[in-house]
Design a protein that fits this description.
This protein is mainly α and about 700 residues long. It is about 65% helix and about 5% strand. It folds into five domains: about 1-40; about 55-190, no CATH class; about 195-290 and about 640-695, Nucleotidyltransferase, domain 5; about 300-535, no CATH class; about 540-635, no CATH class. It has a five-stranded mixed sheet. A hairpin with a 5-residue loop joins strand 1 (about 195-200) and strand 2. Helix 28 (about 640-655) packs across helix 29 (about 665-675).
Length: about 700
């Protein structure tokens, strides 16, 4: 009863509390007390009976039997504590055994202190009494307070630091270690989370599946944590599902707490009937699937590059030029020498600035359909070293050892120095530069889905603006580029002849400028916009539309309370009880008055910043239901970039010289390598101490 009213007490003590919200909190407290009165008598009675049985059983024990009982407990404790041994958890992680073991240890320590000479030490007595009662609560009630775990864990650590040696040192260290394990497991276990999965082949030709969990931490920050790497015999959806479930169950994480799935667009992942997302949805109907935004963008870029025939031919020619110039180490060296000479010349005539990090020598980048931002990097690198590339091609034409080499170089040089190729080069550079900003943003860690949709909208707007008003500036830039490099510029007002000779359907008013502006410039941008609209439809997903009601940038005119309530009713029915759904609407009205109208609220730009601000100002405790909706929306995945990073790390850790590395060792190594911010808290002294305490050694460390 006091725990129910204590929530009201803590809320009333918050600074700047308003009377209307206080009255609402009082009403909710009354409702909780009424519910406790109606439903909780049987559970309370069973709990008290279990506690009394244990208490009186221990009271009847005699002092002279303590050693015997301790030895009996020790045998059972050794068996139960084996649940923590890494060698014994290949099949399942026995969390129940750890909790029972912890309960037994706490009770032994409790009675040890009861008969020990230093019983008068109130600090030790209180700390271990709380530890025992907390273990009893977990063992008999089936639930535990993470605050209590942290409390007695900290108390036991303080006992060790103060040097209370009356309690056996090994027993005390076991208490502290088990408390630390319980603290971490239960802190992760209750949070709603999203799974992000991808697979790739490692150096030893084994198919590895990376698993990442996305969740909201206690400070309101979105976290994407690498959770492990698991070997799968094949990439069938059922095999991947079994692998994911085994990892989650191994760590005692409830599958029903999954609230999102993030995969790439492969058919075994996104299949609506037999794909991985469909199999997970059958078990957890609220685990909504989001196709990786970065993959969508790459697919849109590739599709747009092949939709317009002239643009498709341009990328084929670009790949041909890159292959000819980068075919050997000698040509790469010649390219670097020519680039260094050009940079030196430009500095001498004051065309380039000097400074740290400027004027770096680079190479030509090859575009790939599956590599993010590769098209933009390929186009940009060629524009940057256009003249040195031409110089290398001329050297091959004049000094090539075979006629085939000279012929390829001549064809590449003729292509490279044509006005049409230069125009397409600059056009694609401007277009891809706009979309590359979106691509880089989507790869950021902990990106929220509403901000990602806003970035997509701004990208479409910039592309439309470029289409409507930037043709003249682009044409002038291309003409200036060609004049400096002595490339012939055609007469834009001359009639355009589509192919050599006069075509039958040719029109006299069809000029060169019209062809490049309408058939190339407008067509390329329209194709890109069409692909983006098709793959990032703002009206295709009801979940995203309703979630946008929480975005701080979308509430300047009105706060859509009905949309938020509909979001809960349609998509998060399991996360809110009937009473909470009723309270949510009233809480949203108070939220609109006290939060939305706040001056600092108007400075927020994303829902992630909103979540952090609510925690920082302690409003997350007052508007708990609203905060819960926000965290559920933030849990939805944006991209699988973090799994791609884990595969990049896997290539570094499991290299050709270390291709015999076992899966468990590989996962442990990747965990430390990827989650550097967590590994930084490990000190060398703590690692040495843990290693030293594993067993007795002949030579002390």
């Amino acid at each position: 009863m006091l725990e129910i009213t204590d929530l009201l007490c803590q809320a009333l003590r918050c600074r700047s509390q308003d009377i209307l919200n206080a009255m609402n909190l009082i009403s909710s407290t009354k409702a909780l007390l009424q519910k406790f009165r109606d439903d909780k008598w049987d559970a309370l009675l069973a709990n008290v009976q279990s506690f009394c049985e244990i208490f009186f059983m221990l009271q009847d024990s005699q002092l002279q039997e303590l050693n015997g009982r301790f030895s009996e407990h020790a045998v059972e404790l050794l068996n139960l504590s084996s649940a923590l041994d890494p060698r014994d958890v290949s099949e399942t992680f026995r969390i129940d055994d750890i909790v029972v073991s912890y309960f037994e240890i706490c009770m032994v320590a409790w009675w040890w202190l009861h008969f020990a000479p230093f019983l008068a030490d109130a600090f030790v007595w209180d700390a271990l009494r709380k530890a025992a009662s907390c273990a009893l609560s977990r063992h008999f009630n089936g639930s535990i307070s993470i605050g209590l775990v942290k409390g007695f864990h900290g108390g036991l650590c303080a006992i060790a630091n103060q040097g209370h040696l009356g309690l056996p040192k090994l027993l005390l260290k076991t208490l502290i270690c088990l408390g630390h394990v319980l603290e971490q497991v239960y802190e992760i276990g209750d949070a709603k989370r999203c799974i992000i999965v991808d697979e790739a082949r490692d150096e030893s030709k084994k198919e590895q599946m990376a698993i990442v969990l996305r969740f909201i931490d206690k400070d309101g920050f979105v976290r994407e944590r690498f959770f492990g790497l698991i070997y799968v015999s094949n990439t069938a959806a059922s095999t991947l599902k079994d692998g994911i479930y085994s990892v989650l169950s191994h760590h005692n994480l409830d599958i029903q707490n999954i609230r999102g799935q993030g995969y790439d667009g492969a058919s075994n992942m996104r299949g609506e009937w037999k794909g991985l997302q469909a199999l997970v949805l059958n078990d957890c109907p609220y685990a909504y699937y989001i196709h990786c935004f970065a993959h969508r963008l790459q697919l849109a870029l590739v599709a747009a590059s092949k939709d317009v025939i002239a643009i498709h031919k341009f990328f084929l020619k670009l790949t041909f030029v890159v292959n000819v110039v980068g075919a050997s180490c000698k040509r790469n060296d010649e390219l670097k020498v020519a680039q260094a000479a050009e940079i030196e010349h430009m500095i001498d005539i004051d065309e380039l600035e000097t400074g740290k990090g400027l004027n770096q020598i680079g190479t030509l980048q090859r575009a790939g359909d599956t590599r993010w931002s590769s098209h933009f990097k390929s186009v940009s690198s060629l524009i940057k070293i256009f003249s040195p590339t031409c110089e290398v091609l001329l050297n091959i034409i004049n000094e090539g050892t075979t006629s085939a080499q000279r012929g390829d170089a001549d064809s590449a040089y003729e292509t490279l120095t044509s006005f049409e190729f230069v125009l397409f080069l600059h056009l694609m550079k401007e277009m891809l530069e706009i979309t590359d900003l979106l691509c880089q943003a989507l790869q950021c860690r902990s990106q929220d889905i509403l901000n990602a949709m806003n970035l997509v909208s701004s990208t479409k707007a910039l592309l439309q603006k470029f289409r409507d008003g930037k043709w003249d500036a682009l044409l002038a830039n291309v003409q200036s580029f060609c004049e400096v490099r002595n490339i012939d510029v055609p007469n834009m007002n001359a009639p355009y002849i589509r192919r050599r000779g006069r075509a039958r359907d040719h029109q006299d008013d069809f000029t060169v400028e019209h062809y490049y502006r309408v058939d190339i410039f407008h067509a390329a941008i329209d194709s890109q916009l069409q692909e983006l609209n098709g793959r990032f439809s703002e009206h295709a997903v009801e979940l995203l539309n309703l979630s946008s009601a929480l975005d701080p940038r979308d509430v300047s005119e009105t706060f859509r309370i009905d949309d938020i309530c509909r979001l809960v009713e349609n998509f998060y029915l399991q996360d809110f009880k009937d009473q909470e759904k009723i309270q949510l609407r009233m809480q949203l009205h108070h939220y609109e008055h006290n939060v939305v109208q706040h001056a600092n609220y108007k400075k927020l730009s994303t829902i992630s910043e909103l979540c952090q601000w609510l925690v920082r100002t302690n409003k997350s405790t007052i508007y708990q239901l609203v905060y819960r909706v926000i965290t559920l929306v933030l849990t939805l995945p944006v991209s699988t970039a973090i799994t791609e990073r884990s595969f990049s790390a896997m290539k570094i850790v499991k290299s050709r010289l270390r291709n015999k590395m076992e899966d468990e060792f590989l996962t442990d190594s990747l965990l430390v390598y990827i989650e550097k911010e967590i590994a930084e808290h490990f000190t060398t002294e703590s690692i040495i101490e843990d290693f030293r305490d594993m067993k007795e050694r002949r030579v002390p460390l």
